[in-house]
Amino acid sequence: MATLKDIGLAAAFNIGSAFAFFLAFAILKIQPFNDRVYFPKWYLKGLRSSPIHGRALVKKFVNLDLQSYIRFLNWMHDALKMPEPELIDHAGLDSAVYLRIYLMGLKIFVPIACLAWTILIPINWTNDTLSTVARIKNITASDIDNLSISNIPQGSQRFWAHIAMAYAFTFWTCYVLLKEYETVADMRFHFLLTERRRPDQFSVLVRNVPPDPDESVSELVEHFFLVNHPNNYLSSQVVYNANKLADLVEKKKKMQNWFDYYHLKFARNNTKRPFIKTGFWGLWGKKTDAIDYYISEIEKVSEEIAAERERVASDPKSIVPAAFVSFKTRWAAAVCAQTQQFRNPTLWLTDWAPEPQDVYWPNLAIPYVSLTLRRLIMGMAFFFLTFFFLIPITIVQSLASIEGLEKAFPFLSHLLKIQFVQAFIAGVLPGLVLKLFLMFLPSILMIMSKFEGFISISSLERRSASRYYLFNLVNTFLCNVIVGSALQQLKSFIHQPPTEIAKTFGMAIPMKATFFITFIMVDGWAGVAADILRIKPLVMFHLKNLFLVKTEKDRESAMDPGSIEFHAREPRIQLYFLLGLVYATVTPILLPFILVFFALGYVVFRHQVINVYSQEYESAAAFWPAVHGRVIMALVISQVLLMGLLTTKAAALSTPFLIALPILTIYFHRFCKGRYEPAFIRYPLEEAMMKDTLERAREPNLNVKSYLQNAFLHPVFRGDDDRDENEMEEIMKWENESDLVPTKRTSRRTTPAASKIGSSTPSSQHEGQMVP
Amino acid sequence: MATLKDIGLAAAFNIGSAFAFFLAFAILKIQPFNDRVYFPKWYLKGLRSSPIHGRALVKKFVNLDLQSYIRFLNWMHDALKMPEPELIDHAGLDSAVYLRIYLMGLKIFVPIACLAWTILIPINWTNDTLSTVARIKNITASDIDNLSISNIPQGSQRFWAHIAMAYAFTFWTCYVLLKEYETVADMRFHFLLTERRRPDQFSVLVRNVPPDPDESVSELVEHFFLVNHPNNYLSSQVVYNANKLADLVEKKKKMQNWFDYYHLKFARNNTKRPFIKTGFWGLWGKKTDAIDYYISEIEKVSEEIAAERERVASDPKSIVPAAFVSFKTRWAAAVCAQTQQFRNPTLWLTDWAPEPQDVYWPNLAIPYVSLTLRRLIMGMAFFFLTFFFLIPITIVQSLASIEGLEKAFPFLSHLLKIQFVQAFIAGVLPGLVLKLFLMFLPSILMIMSKFEGFISISSLERRSASRYYLFNLVNTFLCNVIVGSALQQLKSFIHQPPTEIAKTFGMAIPMKATFFITFIMVDGWAGVAADILRIKPLVMFHLKNLFLVKTEKDRESAMDPGSIEFHAREPRIQLYFLLGLVYATVTPILLPFILVFFALGYVVFRHQVINVYSQEYESAAAFWPAVHGRVIMALVISQVLLMGLLTTKAAALSTPFLIALPILTIYFHRFCKGRYEPAFIRYPLEEAMMKDTLERAREPNLNVKSYLQNAFLHPVFRGDDDRDENEMEEIMKWENESDLVPTKRTSRRTTPAASKIGSSTPSSQHEGQMVP
């Protein structure tokens, strides 16, 4: 068991590394050539221009202003300065509410920590159970354990304090949760009421349009809604299966990149035209002139794209049985989205249309029966992934051992005899395999969610997040409390009575406090601090800048602002809620470490949200019910574990008082679900009507139909066309003249603004590019 | 263990008693003076008139046609003769679909029984495990056990046959369930489309109207819906808290009955005016002339009613924050019922309006917060009722012992010394107490559901049914499989691992087969046969006929047609599904007994539905999803128990093959839920629009507003008024002249027709009786 001194050492080390990260960040950030890596959001918004222009050559790349080095923690202050309404305006509601999760952590745990330190720690401290035991058994008790519940003798009356505290903590947590739910729901309503006109406010997505031998999908949809929503129906937009087309466009883009690369290479060194081999991966095959080759390839693909575009537009088979249906008013859209249209509830399914940017196009055509089957398969797959993931890992690890490698790749045997290589394989590889798997886990879960058939990116992320949380709960929390694989845990769940399980876990909880304290410091302190450095985007940007960037526009697309990545980050925050709630009554000394995590995370991610991340979509905080639900789950787990622990402590009389807690907590959850969850799923008619009325008063002559015309066109049919043509022209031009003319046009294809303001005038922008 | 001979004896006895009931029924039924007891539905429909008029005096009361005694089982044929569409027309969809539950039992179990008898019984029979064991241990194995799975040796390969059969039975059951769900959903849509115009088709019930200092509830409702459903809103009807008024009306009715009684007594014996004592229960107090007393009392109550009616109509406090809102079209009502109106989802709650007859008025004013709290309390109360009900029963039983009674009522000690009384108390009373409790259980559960705040009688019955099923599952099924109280079962559930529980129950299952066979015969055969006798209504009718009936109209209200009583009967049918599915693979010999139950039940209740029961309301088979869900639950239980049983049989290799079954079954349930349940909860807009369009074409000049005017008035404000006045006049008339003039007017207050046709013209009928 670690002593306070050990913990202090670890803390010093982790604080040190966190500071090192911050220092590195501060230095890298103020170098002008990194400006686009650390402030991409401002570029995307068009509010910041490159500091490189119009400076001395050295100053273009290195910051020589020494003062700015001294104020290296100033960014924290800047990040906290922006008020919340401005933040919502700047980064969207999703980001602002995401930050509130950290804030909620502080709100919950600051009072709990104060209470626990003033009441529970003295109560635990003023016993001598452990020191007596230690004296008898001649071992030294750790200081941490002296401060935990373990120090209280069996059957002591002091446990009443812990029970009272469990009640107090539960009530306080529920109170904060309730207030937060209320606030977020209000913020959402306010956001929806004040946000600009968006096409999805007027539209629903109808899926599973039944096949009809006599009518096309578009006619069918039009007739159905003209009959069933006679005064409200406005227009409809069928969905094309343009996955192949999208692939081709993607391919062309890649070619374009290569062309840019060789083009730039040639431009810099005008003497030698670059050559490439056309075979596999450019490793063998005929040698040709790279620029000519890519020009011809791009032309070829462009022709293919044109042909495919023609085919998609004319072939009725490329129309999937789904459509975006738009209505004259938001009220009518709200009505259609919330009601059942057809007697068979699996046909003519209507849902709110996601934002155009949020649509996950490949999933729009999945039929209902297949949907439930896909959920079943993925449910089972997730079960196996959670409890059996160690099996393939172990196989890979055994393969990655020295003997395994020798067998698989005999030609490596010489290499494997080197001492250093042996040490690396034995010591590092197994851990690396596991680490790699865990790194890719969110992506794996994301692929699983995609297979399940969700139709918007936001819902994909929400589903992945909930799965990731469960995985973490089993494999990070439970497996570390009782050492053993998830499979062993599963066996004990099946073969042990529930009371026994609660006891085993409850007993193990206090012993694992030091482990989790170290975990919090490494993962929560240093990890969060490392996030701000953005090492991968930094490297990628400079590589791209070196090899691909030709124009300002290219430089813009070389920036990778990233996004919050809700599906990967939120479940990890939830782990800290779980740890905090479980240890609040058991080992309160853990709480300050959690507080530091929440505070640090809040500042760091507030900075990132303001300066870096660019959200792809705006779901108006639709994830909050899931966040709330997971905190409730953590609360119930903490109560059950405390019950188990107290049972083993022979506090039999007091334990029954704890049974009421989980019941009350679950009841509270159901109350919140009924009271607040509809705000995140449905759109009240009153709000819709209010917004319609306001709009009618403000813009009486608004033509909604033309506004909505091409809002829900597949992205490959949209505005990108003109860019393509522009580029082709450019290429042709280059063929003729050979000097670069950087265009002034700024592209906003993937800007965060697009997500909020975006398609406010798409009809004028994309006029004439609709599918014929 | 019982042998086949014992079972045969019991079967003979129960078949005998069933026949005795049928014989008694046949004899009683064809006596003219019982006609109203056994054919009340036809009287209520006005399709049958009393056979007493215009016959010889003897023939009026006793049937002397000997031929009709011979054809004493003819009613079965008559009951089966009526085709289903006619049955729906005659008795409503609820009754017709209720009968389909028995039919579904036959559809599921006839093929299962055939398969099990041809395959499983030979496989079980051709072993000699039990006879070997018996020879060694010198006991005789019962024949029943030789036919069951117990006869197969440990670890035999023959268990594969049982596993294959488990799969076959599951697939067949699911197939039948799917087909039935589909059929019932179609029947419901067809019924809704073709049924007559009903006020609830145009109306929604809005609850939790928020208080407003400036506007009355009625103004508030009108404004809110005029704003948010501008083109569709038609009218609204506030809800009065008329519970006190309803009590007064009830009191007046009672007085009226007593008046009728004494009035009739005096009319028969004109010499002596009847006297009563006005004190407690008529036991002491001043002696007065009974007729004069009741006349003055009735007048007094009438005045009170008038005053209360005035108060309710004028006092704004008697208006509860709820209202029935009617729309111009069914489409608009469907929209309003399925959408959220207000940003706070606990205010302005809209739901389909129940049928006017179906409304449970006292619950309309319960606020949302209180609703969730009530559910929590009742959930806990039900938990305690299920697992701890034996505790109060035991207390009452100990009180009902000889010592207990002697202590409580010392003055009875002489009586308690009589041998016969002692035997009665010791032998019969404890069982009687339990029996009484179980008899009143459905009523207790109904009161609990009422407390929970459901607003329609149909939903009250559905909730009670699901609770009754769970109670039966625990206390009839589980507690009989493993002898022990529910409390002991609960303890083992908590303290044993789940696999252990499945094993214990699985092992006990085959041993309990003979017990359940006897149970099926007593409860399922003789019990169902006894139902047709209608002993309680028979006695009550003749008593009322003797003492109260004055006119034809009174005779009509003396009939007690009863109803299906879904909440008490359906859960008991479900027990047979459970037994059938559990024993299908284990002891197939039980199946024919189940088949007899379903066949008998189908015939008996088809007769009752056609000739007797009068449904209070029509929910259009809204209970089917619950029926379906409970059969699925039985299926899963049967699979888990089989798994437990096979584990103990050392068929370890084969058991894992069974794990897929519950997973597939639950997946099937989820599929059905998604596919068919919405048909029972929502009303698709297409159907509503179709019905609206048809109606507009047929009756272009229909005035919906006047049609709906008073449809949702509290029953005490409705048509009964004219009856009251009529009666007062009658009483006054009697005061003057002394001979009876039976009125020809037939009242249809509680007719079944009212439920379907009912208020089709209430505006003309109740004109002028609305609240001032």
From TrEMBL, chains A, B:
Coiled coil: none annotated. Residues 749-772 have a biased composition (Polar residues). It is a multi-pass membrane protein. Keywords: Calcium, Ion channel, Ion transport, Membrane, Transmembrane, Transmembrane helix, Transport. The chain crosses the membrane at residues 6-28, 108-125, 159-178, 376-400, 420-447, 468-487, 513-533, 575-602, 650-668. GO terms for molecular function: calcium-activated cation channel activity. Residues 9-180 form the CSC1/OSCA1-like N-terminal transmembrane domain. Residues 374-646 form the CSC1/OSCA1-like 7TM region domain. Pfam families: PHM7_cyt (PF14703), RSN1_7TM (PF02714), RSN1_TM (PF13967). It is found in: Membrane. GO terms for cellular component: plasma membrane. Residues 730-772 are annotated as: Disordered. Residues 201-363 form the CSC1/OSCA1-like cytosolic domain. Its main location: membrane. It comes from the Eukaryota. Belongs to the CSC1 (TC 1.A.17) family. This is Calcium permeable stress-gated cation channel 1.
